[in-house]
Design brief:
With about 450 residues, this protein is α+β, with helices and mostly antiparallel strands. About 30% of the residues lie in helices and about 30% in strands. The protein has two domains: about 250 residues, no CATH class; about 130 residues, Alpha-Beta Plaits. The strands form three sheets. Strands 12-13-9-8-1-2-3-7-4-19 form a ten-stranded mixed β-sheet, with helices on both faces. Strands 5, 6, 15, 16, 17 and 18 form a six-stranded antiparallel β-sheet that branches.
Length: about 450
Amino acid sequence: MTTRILIPSGVLGLGFEEEALWCGVAAKPDLIAIDGGSTDSGPASLGTGTSKYARAAIKAEWRVLMKARAEAGVPLVIGTCGTAGADAHVDWMFEITRELAAELGQSLKIARLYSQQSPETLAARFDQITPLDPAPEVSVEDLGSMNRIVALAGAEQIQEALNTGADIILAGRTTDTAIIAALPLARGEHPGACWHGAKIGECGALCSSDPTSGVIQIDFDQTGFTVTPLATGAKCTPHSVCAHMLYENSDPFILYEPGGYLDVTEADYTALDDTSVRVTGAEWHPGDYTVKLEAARTAGFQTTLLAVLRNRRYVENAQEWADKLLAFLDTKLAASLDLPREAYTIDIRLIGVNGALGALEARKGDPTEVGAFVIVTAPTQADATEIAKLINPFLLHYPLTRDEELPTFAFPYSPAHSERGALYAFAMNHILKLEAPMDAFRLETETL
């Protein structure tokens, strides 16, 4: 038996080639699977319960996938709805699906798999929670201060949703691989191949020579899997396929999932032709059933300022100027603010010099201009903005030395400060041990 999974893209909202998608539909897949997000873009989506991607883009792509599902007559599964997979994200995706079902005239059975965890439930299970390395210190009391906590579902939870007979499954936070591995595992394909193929396919065509094309198909069977990109001209090679085990993975041979781990040490990658690659030899090792926990908390509020330095002397001495300005501000703000110094931070990033890497920057050059980007973080938005306003005149005129005329730099917009709102931080990197896979998850079905 062979189980064919069609993967339109690495994530909904990133785009895919429609012609390639319809080639995949014509090849008669058993399931269409696409990811909806990850932690790549930081904790804000989890903290706010909102999507990183534009609703219009999500709806446009989901419309095409709902048409493809209807043509193929197979389940359509999305994992980690709305970027972070909290309950609000699943419900947001459900509303988009409801709108499209009405617009397309489709009657559908929808399964919603919820992954969000209540602080009270986790507090009662606190002895079953183990920190991963690295993980922040977390107490039972800390759980109540977190904005949202999610558990990463595995293949078993997706299988439960498939067992409902749903046409579309909207899953909360899942591992990227779970939505791909679930059906072939349920149908008895080789377990090591199921997890290995799912890992290779999690980002769509990223494992091919044309990563932006999106669409691939993976055929799972009793001994291995075969991966094929579907865009015209796209190719998979043993190199491009095996390299994807390095993607977001601390070990290129071991991958941990709920209920065990994958070992690809003995995997063999063979080019079947110029396009497809056959993979065998991976092994799945069952273990305790644990799910990873992710959480976000509010870590303050931010206001930013931006000034542009073009005077040659200041461009050449931008770091010295920034260091002197920060030292001056420490004294100035201490006399003006009611906040203790440890309550707020001021960071100056020199855009064009070391804005991305800071002290780690190794490249040296002579930029024409430097952007001084100031990030103020404080307990409240009002505090952050008040500090930014106190900084404003000095960011515009602060001199390198005391015995020279005041320079004037450029503010590219007015007012010079911008309120960023709440700042979020990841607050958990732990695992939760479960007696049964569905113990931390909820499943609801509805017919549209």
